[in-house]
Amino acid sequence: MTDVVTRFAPSPTGYLHIGGARTALFNYLFARGRGGKFLLRIEDTDKERSTAAATAAILKGLDWLGLEHDGDVVSQAAGAARHHEVALELLAKGKAYKCFSTQEEIEAFREAAREEKRSTLFQSPWRDADPATHPDAPYAIRLKTPQDGETVIDDVVQGKVTIRNDQLDDMILLRSDGSPVYMLAVVVDDHDMGVTHVIRGDDHLNNAARQMGIYTAMGWDVPIWAHIPLIHGPDGKKLSKRHGALGVEEYQAMGYPAAGMRNYLARLGWSHGDDEFFTDDQAKEWFNLEGIGKSPARLDFKKLENLCGQHIAQAEDAALLQELEAFLGATGAAPLTDAQRDGLSRGMFCLKERAKTFPELLEKAQFILASRPIDMDEKAAKALDPVSRGILSALTPQLQNASWTRDDLEEVLNRFATDQGTKFGKLAGPLRAALAGRAVTPSVFDMMLVLGREESLARLEAAGNGA
């Protein structure tokens, strides 16, 4: 069997769209799960719209998602000479011809066709012209598309798609200025790069029929097609800005972990039984083209958040801290101090549970990130009334000699609550306020263990004194 080679081929005209990211992921998973290659080609033939900044944004988005490609990034524009060479080869084989029709003549043909209510598909008068009649004038090179029969796209996702050849025009390969068109460049690049499977959005489905004409004329193997439905918004309409974030970098800036994003995008239009949550290794092992649905997938932020929460909970602490720092960098936030980084490392065990995004995790970590004097939110300030402050002042000496294990801290605090004629639950509010300046925090015991004896007692003492 031929080694699997897939490619992701974005146009560098803007950010990495969420739909493009899913296409890249599908190509990546299919290749990686079969020991194949995943290649990256930047389709920068449109010189007016292609920018270096957009290319950088695409590479950055793929890097964040962890979709590492094989080999160097291929520039389509850099292959113009090769594309030109193939067009001339098709011309020499009699599979293409020189067309001297001007833009004005082509438009006049179409205008007449519209008035006569017939097909506006341009039929060049130069298709079978005697070369002796060729004028000394600029010309385009057009592919000689078969005029009879059908072109059948055997698509893994869409099934067999049949297009009558009389519905296809004689596609331009080289413009009159000698520049190759995108449709030719795509085919030549895919062939030269050894691409075996073309996995892309179904908005390219009609292109496949025209591109197959080039493969056939050159005697090249046609790749396996898999045209995947586009992503729609929750309302079932084509994804647009009104539905929220479109660019991958926006999802990073919102604090979604890359592993959760990969998991969600893989499930967006593809399924493996009833599995919702899965690891990267499972995705590579399970992913196949047959599991891709024909209908557009709908973006669902609740599902995304749910999966991201599960990935945060199961992540290795060191890897999670590294990604958290990358998130802070992406949002322009101040970097962590050594003390904060150390505290987060110690406290990750109690921060990961039930945090769906990095902002939520950072909110839970406020007790680590804060420094004295502790800034109180409104609810925490209310919890520290004069009575509560008095209780904390009485509690602090009781903790001085605690061994600072969870069991010992629980014993001391529960005994103190009993002596005060109350239950520990009544102490929890003032303790949370004193330790974190927040009413909603991780467990009081977890915070005290992470902060350590000295810092915990200093915060309780400050709160008890009204500082």
From TrEMBL:
Gene3D superfamilies in UniProt: 1.10.10.350, HUPs
Stored PROSITE patterns: AA_TRNA_LIGASE_I
Keywords: Aminoacyl-tRNA synthetase, ATP-binding, Cytoplasm, Ligase, Nucleotide-binding, Protein biosynthesis
Annotated binding of ATP, by residue: 241
Domain Aminoacyl-tRNA synthetase class I anticodon-binding, first and last residues per copy: 321-463
EC numbers, comma separated: 6.1.1.17
Record-level Gene Ontology MF annotations: glutamate-tRNA ligase activity
The keyword Ligase belongs to this UniProt entry's keyword annotation: yes
Pfam families in UniProt: Anticodon_2 (PF19269), tRNA-synt_1c (PF00749)
Locations listed in the record: Cytoplasm
Motif interval(s): 'KMSKS' region: 238-242
Catalytic activity entry: tRNA(Glu) + L-glutamate + ATP = L-glutamyl-tRNA(Glu) + AMP + diphosphate
Span of the annotated motif 'HIGH' region: 10-20
Domain Glutamyl/glutaminyl-tRNA synthetase class Ib catalytic positions: 4-305
Family: Belongs to the class-I aminoacyl-tRNA synthetase family. Glutamate--tRNA ligase type 1 subfamily.
Function comment: Catalyzes the attachment of glutamate to tRNA(Glu) in a two-step reaction: glutamate is first activated by ATP to form Glu-AMP and then transferred to the acceptor end of tRNA(Glu).
Oligomeric and partner information: Monomer.
Name by which UniProt lists this protein: Glutamate--tRNA ligase
Classification of source organism: Bacteria, Pseudomonadati, Pseudomonadota, Alphaproteobacteria, Rhodobacterales
